[in-house]
Amino acid sequence: MPHPASDSTPDFERCRIEDGEGWGKLSVDRILDHRYIQIEEIRYCTPAREKPVDWTVARRKSAVAVAPMLEDGRFLLIQQERYPIQRTIWEFPAGQIDDVENKADREVILNTVHSELDEETGHQLAPDGELIPLGYFFSSQGFSDEHVYLFLAKTVIPNGMGPSPDDGESILACRAVTADELRDEIASNRIVDANTLALYARLCACGIIN
Question: Which residue of 105, 153, 187, 202 is most buried, as measured by CB atoms within 10 A?
Answer without folding.
Answer: 153
